[in-house]
Amino acid sequence: MKKRYTSIWFRYLTTDWLTLRKPDLVNTAFVFAVPDHGRKVISAMNALAEAKGIRPGMAVADARAIFPELEVFDEKPGRNEKLLKGIAEWCIRFTPSVTIDLPDGLILDITGCTHLWGGEKEYLLDLLKKLREKGYTTRGAIADTVGAAWAIARFGKKTPIIKSNEQTEALLPLHPAALRLENETLQRLDKLGLQQISSIISLSRSALRRRFGENLLLRLAQAIGQEEEYITPIQLIEPYQERLPCLEPIRTSIGIEIAIRKLLEGLCLRLRNEGKGLRVAILRCYRVDGKVEQVEIGTNAPTHHIEHLFKLLQLKISNIEPALGIELFVMEAPKVEDLYASQEVFWASKSGMDEQELTELLDRISIKLGSYSIRRFLPDEHFWPERSIKPANSVQEPPAFEWRTDVRRPTLLLSRPYPIQVTAPLPDYPPILFRYQGKVHHIKKADGPERIDREWWLDNGEHRDYYQVEDENGQRYWLFRSGHYTEDGAEWFLHGFFA
Fold first, then answer.
1. Sign of torsion, CA 162 164 169 172?
2. Phi-psi domain of 137 (left: phi exceeds 0; alpha: psi -120 through 50; beta: other)
3. 189 to 197, 224, 368: CA distances (angstroms)
4. For residues 441 and 434, is the Cβ–Cβ distance under 8 A?
5. Which of 104, 156, 249, 426 could be bridged to 152 by S-S, CB 3.0 to 4.6 A?
6. What CATH number does residue 230 fall under?
7. What angle do CA 331, 253, 287 make, to 5 degrees?
8. Could you tell me if 25 and 79 lie in one domain?
9. 328-374 per-position pLDDT tens digit
């Protein structure tokens, strides 16, 4: 079967992506820029900036001289490759062979695929339509060779579909830039007046090799089909999944337990060989009546310990209703993480549970009481107290920085400050009493204020002046005043309780 390729060109790949994230930029001319020898150079621009005469490689200072209102954003290295990889994985539905064509394209091997859409024209129209609906400006072409499809997608002006064995005729009127040549080679071709591929193809190979090097001959031969060009398709990670069909429908809990153990043996063997552990496991039981029973477990740390996972799933068996019987079991691990073996110190005395035993205990408690019954928190780098902690993803996740110990903080911090009524003698003096949930608390001792400024880069508003106070019953509270006193007084809040 004759090979057929599709080339997809994303003319404004990164700028289209940013416009999707920030819709207010849809009517704004903007560019991405990268540092280059002490100046900033444009790496990508949107259609509005291009219409103003701005091009890649232009210095930002020169571009703003042309269009002073130009918005400039810093380019993040590797962003285009990451975007193309995500789009390439999506394109697997059109062909199993997709490769990334940096910096702004994809190559699809569509041999034997287009008949499912009714032909190459319908195939290309559907592919480009779906990509444009996602917000990307695209052009595409189909040809016998990768080089010809690439050239027509970017420089073609007639039909985007080149019939088999007609790629040479389609390439002749195009500029030599359609051959994917280096800028230095293109500049030399322009100086010699070779403005079309037809002018190059008529010259002898020895003359072309002597003047322009071997790469020009290679690219020309690849484009017209005289030299084979191989592509390296992206490899999708095989899902962590095990299937177990049953010869007879399973209706008993013992049968379900046997199926779970067999599934875990296969799944954990692969995880162990790849140095990974699962964090979430989903068991789906397909009944003979067409319904699906599903249970799910989660772990506090990655693991491939079969016995531990079996005990967790065993606690869920009572939630499975087999009815007339289960004919297929499927176990999937949608979330896996790298698992590193912990080093044991054999000369140290064991004073309590090791980390694995503690993690497994937490897993069992979570299964019985609910996944939110046990939470671990880590310090977060924020001034605002309610933002200064974050939930940990796992028991093993290390903190990015240490907990603050230079200031006192309440044992119980409210997720939202509770408004209270306060009587204070003078501005910046501690309150003498406050009313909380209808009860008046007379303050005997107080310490403060501790001023905590609002993070202006996140939101606007007043600062807070915190006080640690103790009432007549010895109970201690964390109060704060929002902003300064005004003619109308000030707003006070209760934010925490000390032990």
1. positive
2. beta
3. 10, 19, 74
4. yes
5. 156
6. 3.30.70.270
7. 55
8. yes
9. 999 999 999 888 765 444 444 444 445 667 777 777 777 777 766 67
